[in-house]
Amino acid sequence: MYNNWINSYRARQRAVGEQLCEDITDWQVSAEGRHTSSGLRSAEVEALEAMRDDDIADALDAIPAANRMTVYFADVEGYHYREIAALMGTPVGTVMSRLARGRKRLRELLADVARDRGIGRDAGKVQAAVPLS
Hints:
The protein has about 130 residues and is mainly alpha-helical. The chain is built from eight helices and no strands. The chain is about 65% helix and about 0% strand. Helix 4 (about 55-60) packs antiparallel against helix 7, helix 5 crosses helix 7 (about 90-115) and helix 6 crosses helix 7 (about 90-115).
């Protein structure tokens, strides 16, 4: 029951606000045109570049872009499979496969980093020590 409430709360937080067209004046429309995002980098790129750890950033860059974005949407943004499928325009099964492959590859790439930092006892324990989901 509690998880259902959390899921619905998160969905409401991500929902785009609606405004009736009658309430928008011409000066608001023209002012909004000055705030377009053309030429700006995406939020995903900003978030990945803002990471302080070069090892993690390198590991993320090493996995295919589709898998990287799927992992980002699931593990950073907290989207569900269906929401990711809608965002990426792919079937839910494809999202599940990309997420599994992306997480597996990240675990492989970050196993040595975790071991060097003393996280987990061995590479098999990295999954529990460095949560990606």
